[in-house]
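Please, is this right?
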Amino acid sequence: MCCNFTKVKETKNGILIYMNNCKKFQLSFNNLHFSLDIIELETFKDFLRKVDISYWENEYENSIYNKKIPIPTLQKNFIILIDRYELFELLSLLDFDTEKKGFLTYKDFDNNINFN
């Protein structure tokens, strides 16, 4: 990782930084880490925006896993599973090109927050 970077956005479980020298984004979310150029980042955002949460939660309602929303990868034996709250947080993290759209983050509060 080059040392010349800009922190674009941060949430409770993730951070998005821009690597100025190599012109790539580094996205870390929970235990996942992605290195994306701008086209890949925009494609990923578009994909996440189109996810039908209700469909996937109904499709896997009897699954043994708590996380029901699959994110496919190019590796056919690897699928990322997230829940609806992680999807919302991931979209919030990736929504950095516009002004706030009415959503609050934990940084909007001055006092300490207890995340129970």
